[in-house]
Each structure stands twice: as C-alpha cells, then as structure tokens.
Amino acid sequence: xxxxxxxxxxxxxxxxxxxxxxxxxxxxxxxxxxxxxxxxxxxxxxxxxxxxxxxxxxxxxxxxxxxxxxxxxxxxxx
Length: 78
Prior knowledge:
Elements: H1 2-10, E1 19-21, H2 24-37, E2 43-45, H3 49-77
Parallel strand pairs: 1-2
C-alpha cells in the first residue's frame, strides 16, 4: 500500500490514459495493482513484465548509444 500511496502523492494518476506496470514491481505488488485497477482504470500489467522492462532498457540504451555515436561523429568533423 505504501507504494501506491507514494505514487498517488507524487503523480496525478488520473491524467494518464494508460499506466503500464513492468518489471519486478508486477511480481511484488500484483495483488495490490489488481485491486487498484478497479479505482484507476488506466492501470495495465504486462504478463511478461520482466521481459518488457528489459526490452525498454534495450531501446533506451540503443538510443543513448546512437546519440553518443552521432555526437562523436559530429565533433570529429569540426
């Protein structure tokens, strides 16, 4: 319940169309998230939650690598 309280204090959850839960948080708080889905209809849990989180990290990491590579190429042309 603490995590939900903190989330509700820090974010206006009702302003989001969809809130996707991924990673180990789903395993740890699945029952609480399911309970909250009745109150906050935008909550969605991903079945393969850890794989989804890993895929997200891969996408972010790939973009960071591309940005660094592009910046280095740009700087070497100066």
